[in-house]
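Schema walk-through. Below, the input block comes first and the output block second. Nothing else is stored per chain. Lengths vary across the set, and this one has 236 residues.
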Amino acid sequence: MITSSQIRAARAIINAKQSELAKAAGISLATLNNIERGVGDPRTSTLDAIERALQRAGVDIAGDSTHETVTLRRVERPQAFDTFLASQRVLEALGPDSLLKPQTVLLFARWNRSQEDERPRICLLVEGQVRAVLFDRVDFNLGGGARVAEVAGVMLAAFAFHRSRLRYLDQVLEDTTSAEADEAVDRLKSLQSLPLDHPGSFIDVFGSWDDCLSRYGERPGHPLADLAGLFVAEIA
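--- output ---
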């Protein structure tokens, strides 16, 4: 079970305030403050919530009768999972309460040569203050209304929360998943990226923004309509 000293060390290693960790864990600031000071007898469920929030922030907690360790995963590549769960992970990383604290959000596309379907996959590299998360094993693509909705939802969050931090690559890369995570991140950071001012600039690298807009842009409740609406409102 996580200890007060591990919590303090974990906050220090990810540069998080008590208020930020408390919000991420879904507990009150007063509760976290008491736990860190060793006041009271916190519930196991409360300590578990804190540890889960720190794990999502890239911190691994371990300990036994003689040792306590707090380790930061500086580069994280979530394993392949279905696109719905992946969307939730991406939105969590991009959200206003994210302990990752994104500094740069890079969107890029890669080929998927390992399967018969050769449609490019849409990927993200989210760089925070102390670590980076690479989402390149997810099956994001433009292969239908539901898939376009997932991509649009991710881009909507990116523009809503990190517009000044958005960048993209204007080429489709070879399969980045064949390299180790740290190697893939180093390669992506070495490539010339461009500021992303409009979602169409990125979509047009591997597809057609206008085609997506004509197909899904007027469907009520479709995230692409909301994404396009951000820029219609600006023009108006």
